[in-house]
Fold this sequence. Notes:
Elements: E1 4-10, E2 13-19, E3 24-26, E4 35-37, H1 46-61, E5 66-70, E6 84-87, E7 92-96, H2 101-116, H3 122-132, H4 141-144, H5 146-164, H6 175-184, H7 187-194, H8 209-212, E8 223-225
Parallel strand pairs: 5-7
Antiparallel strand pairs: 1-2, 1-5, 2-8, 3-4, 6-7
Helix pairs in contact: 1-2, 2-5, 3-6
Bound molecules: zinc ion.
Amino acid sequence: MRSSTAWHIVAGRVEEVTIPAEGFEIDLGLACNGYRLLPGNEDDNWRDFTLGKVAEIATRLTPWAEWWCSPNLPLHEEIGEVGGVAYGQPQVGLVRSCWRPEFSISTAFHEAWHLAEPWLTYEEAMAVQAATKRGPEWPTDYLRRECERSARAFQNWAMSTLETGGGRPGRGAPMHYKAFWSVYSGEVGQRALAKRGVVRPERRPPPAPVKVIQWWRGGAINTATV
Ligand SMILES: [Zn+2]
């Protein structure tokens, strides 16, 4: 029987949860009726390298959100295989752990953007929209969505900033870079925590194994904390 590991990230804490052969369901709130993480094989670099980077991005950019990482995410109804998903009110991000580090990290930025975008100021949102509508005509409705254009633009900018160790954009930088920086630096995350509408992690059930059980509906699973 094959089993593997899902990683649950909440408020900077990382928990390891064993995925049984039949998988287990996590609760994505109002957006979805059950979402089943399935067993599979993690990338060789996942535990020692990628997980730490993804957890850091998740915690800095979206400190209110709940994240799950799993080697095998269900197929998306519109686009098939995905590297990550953002769901919820929005509060839940998912990242695939079977991909090479740069893909998983890039996906974490992409999904974090989807979660953080509702917390941009009006000016930030307008600057990003104005910048990203200049790009190519993508071949599918899904890829053409405004939120997907901005998520891809942010993801690419964030990877470049990560690679170069870049800091806050200077005075003459494009407005949308400043919005990107607000998300990348964690300013938007802190802004979201300060407003009503997000449940602060400390007010949620603590991510102890007994609480993880509330996150699935189905057969017995083993849990362990790391
Ligand atoms: Zn997306």
